[in-house]
Automatic annotation (TrEMBL):
May play a role in the regulation of cytokinesis. May play a role in signaling by stimulating protein glycosylation. Induces neuritogenesis by activating the Ras-MAP kinase pathway and is necessary for the survival of cerebellar neurons. Does not appear to play a major role in ciliogenesis. Belongs to the ataxin-10 family. It comes from Daphnia galeata. This is Ataxin-10. One of its GO terms (biological process) is neuron projection development.
Length: 458
């Protein structure tokens, strides 16, 4: 259709819509003629040429139909046309945006508490797409949409219909991307349930929820606020997602690396209490997830530059490695090396923990003479060498150990000489075990861990 014929076409279509709408008002059950016209309009607005030229008068008619008594087939076709047009044709109907958003929000509110029939599910999807298109073209409307939809978003994001969950998370991401204020607000305790649903949705693989989580990684302090308000099981889901994103998150704010390092140092010793405990200790699993994030992320330049300055992290990691190594040699427990790679390994918080400690030490010592020297001074070279054995509880620990030794020795003659002249001298007492009132003893039968004298007397 050429430009000269568009005006008469739209005028005729507007006339038909008004006529069919009048007939519907007089005969409420006879909506098929109007539905046929609306379906034709929906098909037309799939094409860029038509949705860029649709008159404002017709868009207002569509809103008028939606505002009338709910007829799902009619509302669905109106919503489809508005969805198609609001991204491309925004300048032609700026006076209707508030009305459009209000109607979309009212429809969502009326549906969310009900058991959705199929046609309402489809309508809900289209309405969410419509709101998402508005956000993509009019960032300044983010706060208006947030105020209108905030109480419904948690239910929509967690909805069992995958597309409703996807489209509502797209709306959530659009608002968070457009507004720093909304990102700050959503990390407060008031919105803990909503952010928990967002984290859960991200864990289920909903793409836009994952985009939202990545936004918080790049913000100063917001990730820490978001994390601290969550229940422990939600924290573990969030940590799992962040681990999946690592080490690609080069834009992650430096404060967040410091936060994870500090949190790991606070939680590190919790893993030791799982030595003979078969349960999936959630607090210990938090420490497991944190060291995995640090181990993965420290291979990236931004994280490496931040973490290799953290001597407390280095000391904690070394002491923890020595403690786990000593416990592993003291008898049969969940830190004991398993050489049978064909047998089953029972799920446990300590799985792969030792491997990630080695990986973290290797990354921290990469082209870092001060860390190389510090690891030698803290007598950590011997435990690293002893990690070069295969262990079914720590897949790839042999490879990470070899890499760590390589990084320790690169351009470091002192470390090379220590390894070259190493002989067995005895047992280094890990301070973490000492803090727990335990000591490591060596005998002809091997190593053992027992309560210290002062602890037994008390």
């Amino acid at each position: 259709m050429n430009d000269s014929s568009k005006d008469p076409f739209w005028a005729e279509l507007e006339y038909k819509l008004k006529e069919d709408l009048d007939n519907l008002n007089s005969s409420p059950g006879n909506y098929l003629p109007l539905l046929n016209e609306l379906q034709t309009l929906t098909q037309l607005t799939v094409e860029d040429d038509f949705r860029s030229s649709i008159p404002n008068e017709i868009l207002k008619l569509l809103l008028k139909i939606i505002q009338g008594p709910l007829c799902v087939p009619l509302s669905l076709e109106c919503a489809r046309t508005l969805r198609n047009c609001c991204g491309k044709n925004w300048e032609s109907f700026p006076d209707t945006w508030s009305q459009l958003l209000n109607e979309c929000n009212d429809l969502l509110k009326s549906f969310i508490l009900k058991e959705f029939p199929v046609e309402v599910i489809i309508l809900t999807r289209v309405i969410l797409q419509c709101v998402g298109n508005v956000l993509n073209t009019q960032a300044n409307l983010s706060h208006t949409i947030w105020e209108s939809l905030q109480s419904q978003l948690g239910k929509l994001i967690s909805h069992e219909d995958e597309k409703i969950s996807l489209y509502s998370s797209s709306v959530m991401f659009g608002m968070l991307r457009n507004s720093l204020t909304i990102r700050e607000e959503i990390t407060t305790h008031r919105w803990r349930d909503l952010t928990a649903e967002l984290i859960s949705s991200s864990h289920r693989g909903i793409l836009y929820s994952q985009f939202s989580i990545k936004l918080f990684l790049c913000d100063h302090n917001m990730l820490e606020n978001l994390y601290n308000f969550q229940e422990l099981h939600t924290k573990l889901l969030l940590l799992h997602q962040i681990s999946e994103f690592s080490p690609e998150c080069e834009d992650m704010d430096v404060h967040n690396w410091k936060f994870f390092s500090r949190l790991f140092q606070e939680r590190a010793s919790l893993i030791l209490r799982t030595c003979e405990n078969p349960s999936m200790d959630l607090e210990a699993m938090e420490a497991t997830s944190l060291v995995e994030i640090l181990a993965k992320s420290s291979s990236g330049d931004a994280c490496h530059r931040e973490l290799f300055l953290d001597d407390d992290l280095l000391v904690t990691t070394i002491d923890l490695l020595r403690s786990i190594h000593s416990l592993a040699q003291s008898g049969s427990n969940y830190f004991t090396t398993i050489n049978d790679h064909f047998g089953s390994v029972e799920p446990h918080p300590a799985l792969n923990f030792k491997c990630n400690l080695v990986r973290l030490l290797g990354n921290l010592s990469y082209k870092n003479p001060s860390t190389q020297d510090r690891i030698r001074e803290l007598d950590a070279i011997a435990p690293l060498l002893e990690c070069c054995n295969l262990d079914a509880r720590n897949p790839f620990i042999q490879q990470w150990s070899i890499l760590a030794i390589r990084n320790l020795c690169e351009k470091n003659v002192a470390n090379q000489e220590v390894i070259g002249s190493m002989t067995r001298k005895g047992v280094v007492q890990p301070s973490l075990l000492e803090d727990l009132g335990m000591v490591v003893e060596e005998s002809n039968s091997g190593l053992s861990v027992r309560p210290s004298e002062s602890n037994r007397k008390s």
